[in-house]
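Note to self: the last two entries modelled the partners one at a time, which told us nothing about the interface. This time every component goes in together.
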Amino acid sequence: MRKISIDKLDLLFAEIAKTAKLYLPVDTAAGAKYEEWAEGKTLSNALNTVRSPKDFFFPQTENLVDFKMEGKTIEIIDTREECEDFVIFGVRACDVKSFEVLDRVFLAEPVDTYYKNRRDHGVIVSMACTRPAETCFCKTFGIDAAAPEGDIVCHKTADALYLDAKTEKGEAILSAVSALTEDTDTTAVDEQKKLIAERLEKLPLKDLSASDFGAGKTDEFFNAPEWKELSETCLGCGTCTFVCPTCQCYDIKDFNTGHGVKRFRCWDSCMYSDFTRMAHGNSRNSQLERFRQRFMHKLVYYPTNNDGLYSCVGCGRCISKCPINMNIVKVMKKLGGKKNG
Amino acid sequence: MQEITRDILVNRACELLSNGTVDRVLGWKAGEFAYDVTPALFRSCEELTEGFVWNDFCGANFSKYLVKETGKSEAKVLVFLKSCDTYSFNQLLTEHRFDREKVYVIGVPCNGMLDPKLLKDKAEGILSVTDNGKTVEIETLYDGTVTVDRAELLPDRCVNCKSKKHVAYDELLGEDGETVESARFDEVARLEKMSADERFEFWQNELSRCIRCNACRDVCPACTCEKCVFDNPNSALENKAPANEFEEKMFHIIRAFHVAGRCTDCGECSRVCPQSIPLHLLNRKFIKDIDSFYGDYQAGAEVGSRAPIVNYTTEDLEPSEAVERGDE
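The predicted structure of the combined assembly is written out below.
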């Protein structure tokens, strides 16, 4: 484990930025957001960025291919380029876990080469959460806010940043900045982990359980009468899906350039009335069905197809951002039987 | 003056349910925390007693829900409306969007609703919120009890409240207020004074954060088209995400044009925006212009009023004059 004094963070960022593009959460008037590091930008202490870091691997819009027409010929232009290396600094445990959820979708056969390109070139530097919020419930999904995954795992104390490389990618970064850091034992980090564990036990959502849901539970929940009440005042907007770090549905569209086509994909939302619209029409005609789809996907369908892994990581963004304050916690408590009573 | 408490609202709703005046109640339901109040339908006194909440976080404007709700049943629905909500209610009636006879309105007094975003700027790990009138006490996980001036937690729409007067109700709890002189156009005036480039930069910065979740549109009481042009695959305008930054501005500016003269300035668009974009400023610009070009007009102040921009009179401003003023 390596250590760097907190007043040398700028030097650390400058050194990392020499080897790769460095992104880190910074505070803005509209909340924390990831920005490329530059002299003078400081690391935010916010727990969540407003937009999740899924943007780095699965951007909201992305050009897939261009078609250029000249007379009767159509030229097909592959717009893919090998991505440059980049580092995402300060990713929280929940968001790091969301990359595994996305990987299982995009890296399964047939591999999504657009996603893989960025994933291969991205280095994740995670950060333990010392002050989890009342809206946090990562523990429900087996995530430890004190010990995030990632290529490098960081713990920040009042006077130092502790860095622990977990992968080859992480080792490479740490060796590039070794002149700035010093070797250290794990005492301070162990203390912090203990403090975080105590704090996690005081969170209001600490007892929320997902164990009633999971693989193979479709029949148990699909026709539950509670969906009506839960979805009754849903506006059908896409806020929950767009701030969610694990929502991964997209649509592919053609943009008419006048002399060809730009084919792009963009995030889609199961909350939208035209989601998965086909020649016969829409498969889910009511907001109840759309609402149910989102939560069944997170809690039942995804685990069914992915060895029991839930596709919620408990980051709490939907709790903060839903215009009507409906969210997965309320759904789990309503449907999840006695455990969440 | 008697304080209008949660129990008074629940008791009155229970009476109206039991005497058959209404068969369901549109109200606010308590959540996990003080601030995550959800609009909900209550069908019995038991449900109301268990879950109904009336606190500082009942910001949601229920008027738009009535379009869908009145179509579901012949029986009346009870709705609680704050003064600002009643303007949206009247505007929807003006546009014949629902049947007035199917709604029973109880006007409720409002001292300004608190903004959860501002609350979270002031305190981390919020466990409870207690309103002491002038101050608000926030019990937190890590910093003990934090005390904040209530005024600091009010969103712009409440700081600049335009009216404490309920313009529609069947009965009113508490005493009615009056319309209020507010500074709500000050920020618009500030933007007007900017150069075109500065103003472009301001909006570029704000609107570039848009994630196109459509929450502003979906919550807006003036946006009640059954099929929005932006959701219609046959409109050639349908887009789930912007192809470029220009499209993003198009969406918001087109929406502002579409609700011009009908927007009551309820502020729901800015309340729900997950990216904290001050969308209400676009609408206020239109309201300010309408006021200065045609004389003061408040959408929703009365049922059946015609917005100046859809009501031709021979004294109307010539378009060229409006353009000239815009150049000033």
